[in-house]
Amino acid sequence: MEDCGDPCIKCEELLQPYVDRELTDEERIEAEAHLALCGYCARRYRFESTLRRYVRKCCEEQMPVELKEKLLALRTPLL
Amino acid sequence: MTEPEPETAARRIAGEARDRIRFEEDALQYADQVYRVARRLVPSREEAEDLVQDTYTRAFRSWRSFTQGTNMRAWLFRILTNLNIDRGRRNQRTPDLQPIEEGDYFLYNRLEETGGSEDEQVVEKLSQDGVVQALAAIPHDFRDVLVLVDIGEFSYRDAAQILDIPIGTVMSRLHRGRRILKHELAEQAVGQAS
Fold first, then answer.
1. What is the tens place of the pLDDT at every residue in B109-127?
2. Considering CB atoms only, which of B20, B21, B40 is closest to A59?
3. Is residue B134 domain-shared with residue B59, that is, in the same domain?
4. Do A47 and B119 lie within an 8 Å CB cutoff?
5. Which domain holds residue B108?
6. What residue numbers bound the domain in which A25 lies?
7. Which residue among B105, B122, B155 sits closest to A7, beta carbon to beta carbon?
8. How far is the alpha carbon of A42 from chain B, nearest alpha carbon, in Å?
C-alpha cells in the first residue's frame, strides 16, 4: 500500500461524499479502489467516520419532559 | 350549485379533523430530533426550547400546506431553520480561511501523536463539552449545514431543500464547517497537552 501524499487531492474530492454515503455506485467503486491503494486516505477515512460518529454521540440529548408536555398541549383538543 | 347535504358536510369536517390529528401525531414523532438539532443551532437550552415550540406551533397552524406523502421530517426542519433565521440572525463575517487550511490534517495528526491504537480511543480524548463548544464556534451558515447533515442525518439533497441553497453550496459549506470544527478541536487538543 502506498501513500499518495499529504494532502491527497483524490482524497479531498472523494472523501467527504464517501463518508456521507453520497457517491453514485460508479464513484463509490472509484473511491474504494483508491482507499485500497492509499494508506493515507484509508486512515483519514476511518478517522473522519469515527469523528463524525463521536460528534453525533456528543450531541445526543434528551428533550426535557416539560417541553414534551408543552408540545403535546399544542395539539388540537379532542372533542 | 346546491348546498352540500348536512351529513356530507359533517363527514368532511370529521375527516379533516382526523387528518389533522394524524398529522400532529406524525409530526410529534420527530420532536426529539428537532430538539437535538435546535440545541446546536442556538446558544442556549432556553432558546432551543422556544425554537422547538415555535416550530411546532407554526407546523400545526400550517398543516394544510404539508403535502401528504412528501418528506415530513424535511418539512419540519425547514420551518425550524426558517424560524431560526427570522429570529434576527445576523450575517456573520466569513472567517478567514488561511489559518484553518491545515485543520483537516492537524487534528488527525495531533490526536494520533497523543497515542491510542484505535480511532475510537483517539477521538474519545475529546470531551463532550469540548465538541459542543467547538460546534458553537462555527459560523451559522456552515454550522446549519453541518448540524443538519451530521446530527440530523439529512442527505445533501434534503439539506439543500431545507436551507433553500444549491447542493454544491451544501457540500462546500459542510467541508468548510467540518474544517473549522476540526481546527477548533485541534486547538483544544493542543491546549490540553500544553
1. 777 666 666 677 778 778 8
2. B40
3. no
4. yes
5. 98-193
6. 9-73
7. B105
8. 12
Contacts 24+ apart (CB under 8 A), B71-74: B71/B158, B72/B26, B72/B27, B72/B30, B73/B30, B73/B33, B73/B154, B74/B154, B74/B158, B74/B161, B74/B162
Mind listing the pLDDT tens digit for each residue in B29-64? 999 999 999 999 998 999 999 999 999 999 999 999
Does residue A78 fall inside a structural domain?
A: no
Encode pLDDT of A50-70 as tens digits: 999 999 999 999 999 999 999
Tell me how many domains chain B contains: 2
Interface of A with B (CB under 8 A): 6-7, 16-17, 20, 22, 43-44, 46-47, 49-52, 54-56, 58-64, 67-68, 70-72, 74-76, 78-79
CA dist., res. B95 & res. B100, Å (int):
9
Its pTM stands at 0.83
